[in-house]
Amino acid sequence: MHETTALLIELGAIILGLGILGRLAGRVGFSAIPLYLLAGLAFGHGGLLPLNASEEFVATGAEIGVILLLLLLGLEYSASELVSNLKTQYPSGIVDFVLNAVPGAAAALILGWGPVAAVALAGVTWISSSGVIAKVLGDLGRLGNRETPVILGVLVIEDLAMAVYLPLLTALLAGLSLAGGSLTLLISLGTVGAVLYLALRHGRLISRAVSSDNPEMLLLVVLGLTVLVAGVAQELQVSAAVGAFLVGIALSGEVAEGAHNLLAPLRDLFAAVFFVFFGLNTDPAAIPPVLVPALILATITTLTKIGTGWYAAKRAGVRTAGRWRTGGTLVARGEFSIVIAGLAVGVEPRIGPLATAYVLILVILGPLAARWTEPLARRLTRRPAPAAPAPAAAAAVPVSPEAGVAPPVAKPPVAEPPATEANDAAPSRP
Questions:
Q1: pLDDT per position as a tens digit, 239-270
Q2: Residue 225, phi-psi category: left (phi > 0), alpha (psi -120 to 50), beta (remainder)
Q3: What mean pLDDT value characterizes the chain?
Q4: Which CATH architecture has domain 63-380?
Q5: Which of 11, 217, 275, 372 is deepest in the core (most CB within 10 A)?
Q6: Phi, psi of 115 (to 5 degrees)
Q7: What is the pTM for the complete model shown?
Q8: Helix/strand/coil (H, E, C) string of the chain?
Q9: 8 Å CB contact between 204 and 249
């Protein structure tokens, strides 16, 4: 079969399969992300029917999917909101690092993999998946909830921290000198700072330059600008996802709203391709030997992420239900964890299978935790309503012949109904 023909057949089968899985998930009220991942696992390397002709195209589509997910996430908030959020959420970022990076580092040291592998595995367990979480928030209709800015604040701190972490890890893995590692770090920090400055100071000018009454022109300009900035950011040792997110932050007003409406269908398509690609690159045979340590590590860091979300939402004044939703939403790991593991495989090959199994567990568990953590916590912590005391038996009271009546008997107190917590959702930002 001709290579182009095979490519078209495989791509058509992938997209059609994604549509069927998405409809199935929608009918049962479930996120489609785990189904996309399992489909990729079934048809990837070592799966039931490997797809070879479309692998390179799907890999490119997966990169575009992450970029679009973060772009549309950035369009939801302005630059001033981002800076304000960072100022208020940086203590939560510190707690997030301590609670979630330490278990990964400790696991690597216990397994005897050495300090460099410990730094790498700490990053795998630390960083939540912005791509998965952005998709889950949209699927569950929570973009307007009060806790959503808190979730985004934690994610942005993690993504920006990658601008420091990835150059340092790369320098450690390559055995670079202190001067070489410092230069890479300065370049990445300077890139992030420059984009943030442009978004804060000249965001209106950028929006005005991008704006167009023609939907086709608006789509082409916004998409081209985003992919270009993401590529430049990647070249300068900054995550492409961070670059796309900052482009979304820089756009505001009618331009942001119009771009969101135009790009949402493309985001959904390429985001589905991203999750399938993750499964395609996972060999099912490599998972069983590392399944037990991956399950232990996933259990520990699920609880620590829920604790991180609870703490961050509590600091922001979110009520109890929103705190549980915040923690459950942050559980998923994904793209950054895989990137980090891929960098570290050359130093410690065993990190690859462990990280793959760990991420696969949490990327499937993540949408479930986002949906069910709050209802489960509410059920487990619900206090039974106090029972009304039984009425006291009326004692025989002698009737005074002069009065002819007995004194009145006091009524028993009535128990008040338990207070119910108001909904934490707030109207979506226009």
A1: 677 778 778 888 877 888 888 888 888 888 88
A2: alpha
A3: 79
A4: Up-down Bundle (1.20)
A5: 275
A6: -70, -35
A7: 0.69
A8: CCHHHHHHHHHHHHHHHHHHHHHHHHHCCCCCHHHHHHHHHHCCCCCCCCCCCCHHHHHHHHHHHHHHHHHHHHCCCCHHHHHHHHHHHHHHHHHHHHHHHHHHHHHHHHCCCCHHHHHHHHHHHHCCCHHHHHHHHHHCCCCCECCHHHHHHHHHHHHHHHHHHHHHHHHHHHCCCHHHHHHHHHHHHHHHHHHHHHHHHHHHHHHHHHCCCCHHHHHHHHHHHHHHHHHHHHHCCCCHHHHHHHHHHHCCHHHHHHHHHHHHHHHHHHHHHHHHHHHHCCCHHHCHHHHHHHHHHHHHHHHHHHHHHHHHHHHCCCCHHHHHHHHHHCCCCCHHHHHHHHHHCCCCCCHHHHHHHHHHHHHHHHHHHHHHHHHHHHHHHCCCCCCCCCCCCCCCCCCCCCCCCCCCCCCCCCCCCCCCCCCCECCCCC
A9: no
Q: Look-up: residue for tokens 């569950």?
A: 140
Q: What is the pLDDT of residues 98-136, one digit of tens each?
A: 999 999 999 999 988 888 889 999 999 999 988 788 888
- The full set of domain ranges for the chain reads 63-380
In contact, 158 and 96? CB cutoff 8 Å: yes
Amino acid letter, residue 266: L
CA–CA separation, 267 and 196 (whole Å)? 24
Contacts of 36 (CB under 8 A, 6+ apart): 18, 21, 272, 275, 276, 279
Reported as a single tens digit per residue, the pLDDT across 357-392 is 898 889 889 888 999 999 998 888 876 656 556 555
